[in-house]
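ok so i was messing around last nite and threw this chain in just to see what happens. nothing serious, just curious
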Amino acid sequence: MSGDRRSGSGKPMAGQVRAAALHALHALEKEKTWSEQAVKKEIAEKGLERRDAALLTSLVYGVLQNRRLLDFYIVQVSGKGMNRFAPVVRDLLRLSFYQALFLERVPNHAVVDEAVALAKRRANPQAAGLVNAVLRKLFTTRDALTPPDASTPSGLAVATSHPDWFVQKMVDCLGLAKAGEFLLSHNRPAPLCARVNTLLADDESVLAELAAAGVEAEAFAGVPHCLVLKKTGDVAALPAWRAGKIQIQDPASQIAVAALGPRPGEHVLDLCSAPGGKAILAAQWMDNKGVVRAFDLYPHRVELILKNAVRMNALILSAETGDGTVLNPALVGSADRVLCDVPCSGMGVIRKKPEIRYKTWEEIQDLPVLQGKILKNAASYLKIHGEMIYSTCSVLTEENEEVVEAFLAENDGYSLCPFDAPLLGRAEKGMATLWPHVHGTDGFFIARIRRNR
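result:
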């Protein structure tokens, strides 16, 4: 990661990558886009090769994962509040502090020189002088920096770069020590996981095919047909992916389908389905015997479901537009099983989408009303003695247990029922949460509900 690595044209590539990282960070704050989209856009526009693309990704994600802690140190070193800096200077300081404090292989002079050059290009000479002064002070005082006090919820929030409201909820739920483990898991890279499509292949043949393509793959312990992939490059270019033998899917999502346990010959509905991973896995569980109907609100997402179904040979799957919040009378009492993975805050997938952590409580506090509407409609689609899964990629009880309990309190004909699932074992209460720091999956909530009459 030296500061003088050059491309074939003689241009310093490390400097170009850091300029791209600054541009992506500024776009994230200004345009409120997703980190994955911002990074992919920079990679495509700059024509970055795999090594440089990996560096860009690590820089952008690293700053987002540690932004609040970086701001804490910037204020400590500069003596200025973050609002005293122009937005581009603020992002440049965050990027430079991240390199200085988290990336050991970056020389001090490279951090300073590249930051000053970027400040001159993106801001002005006065900003360049400010950046130069702050960074030089950082390198003379780095060993004396005072870290935040992580023994309190507010200090833990700064140390792990999460909002105070979320950290307090996690401390209330898990206790301070376990909450710290959970929050820190968001600041480490998430493994790239895929599942083997047993409609077209088996684990052994897929592992061999991936190895031939230069991909490192191994089983994800405890989840059948789930693999952890490394050195994939563009996944969509892999022969195994193009042939429909694998699908990128977190183990938690796979476990939700296992908890539902669809059987051959059944009629299964998947609401809020796109991109269709769980619906296709249901068809896989059913050995392509029965019916799987997938719904999503937007036509282009329905097209994505259908494309994935064709690629993966899910012959019993159909997809159509449908609004989960609006009751569809034609579906009432029709399904043996229903998958109801509702829109949520995403507070369980922060390690993959680090910008999610900066949501405010006000932004997400109305979600349980929406989730409750979808759950009520989904439950009405069950046959008598039919069963459904209500799930979210959130760890907030307001979106999970409280939504389920409110539904059950208002609907006498339904009850929670125990289930067995990989990693979770026996969920006797009919509800369970997967945690990144415990299970190695996304944060994910699963409840299994039965219609009794």
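not much to say yet. The radius of gyration is 24 Å.
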